[in-house]
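Limitations

Structures in this collection are predictions, not experimental determinations, and the ligand pose is part of the prediction. Treat each record accordingly. The example that follows, with S-adenosylmethionine as the small molecule, is included so readers can see exactly what is and is not provided: the inputs are given verbatim, and the output is the predicted complex.
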Amino acid sequence: MSTTIRSGSGAGAEVAQPPPRKLAEPKPLSDPVTAMMRYQSPLRYPGAKAGIGKLINEIVKSAAKPLGRPSLFVEPFAGGAATSLRLAGLGTVDRVLLADADPLVANFWTAVAQDTSWLVDRMWDEPITLERWDYWRRWCPSRQDDRELAVKCLFLNRTTFSGILHGRAGPIGGRAQTSGYPLDCRFNRPELQKRLEFVGDLYRTNRLLDVWCKDWEATLADVAEWYPQLLPDRVVAYLDPPYLEKSAKLYGRSFDPAGGYAPSPESAKHARWLHACEHLRLAEYLRRKARYRWILSYDYHDRLLQSPSLYRARRMTPSSEDKDLLGVREWRISRRMLTMRYTAAGASTRSSTREVLLTTLPPSTLPVVQSAD
Ligand SMILES: C[S@@+](CC[C@H](N)C(=O)[O-])C[C@H]1O[C@@H](n2cnc3c(N)ncnc32)[C@H](O)[C@@H]1O
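Predicted complex:
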């Protein structure tokens, strides 16, 4: 399993790569029940909504009728990986591949998949206290592949406000711990054990192919290089990038290389500019270079569908060179607006947010939906 970071802005230098894991036939799960539950991911993730996973499962299932069941579903911005875990568990796709540029997140998934029992034992041994919360906030590994990174990721994700791994979010329940939500209120060990073991099960049964720590573009390039036997029509990339706005406050690795904490107004301006460039780089790639079918979800913003540099186009427009040499196709780009309903922690009423889903899967596969929850 690779924890290598390659290419792309802010992604760091290239280091040695282990060989890719071979494609093998998926086997039956030992725990098919967890696959049917509402949640499979052990991580709470800002931006992750269970409703999108259900909807994408329907879209991919319906696209399998004309195109065949996907051999690979790749999630280059994996985060909490809710959608991939659902599709792999239900067998909607043969296998999934998770990748994220944040070493904390990638190391977590690597440990869950490969060292499941170790991580489960380590989770039971870890005291959930404010002292440990402060410890994990300060702790930095001396080696990039230290297994304890997985513990840090799980601990902070389950004990920090909204599951935010980034530096400024505080502990659930605050420093005083006087609210009705104590620090450990989201750290249900038996439930977490079930979900961690479910991921280990996916890995052992070849339904979780691998975990990579890479920039999204390197992930998509390496899938093509390492698995040339996969047919472009049978690979679906699901991209759920950082939000167009606010993401620097939510993710350890947003598209903003300063992580939202630039030291001066001038560098903050520069960071915002780079952040915007990253969204443009992704859009350019998806409109002109993507060799695989893709599904993209974004928090809704007028600019997204109006700007020609983002997603105004209704069809992919690859260069003749990329068409001839790489086989990039002129797939139609379909879109759907979604209203996501959710209940915020501590609130008694439901709120909603707008998302947009874009895809090059056949338009007939997109259900006419108004809301997903
Ligand atoms: C919106 S979250 C993904 C949430 C995920 N879909 C889920 O269900 O939890 C975006 C993720 O992209 C990762 N990320 C940010 N920049 C990246 C890059 N250049 N390449 C790959 N991953 C990146 C962040 O670390 C974060 O985990």
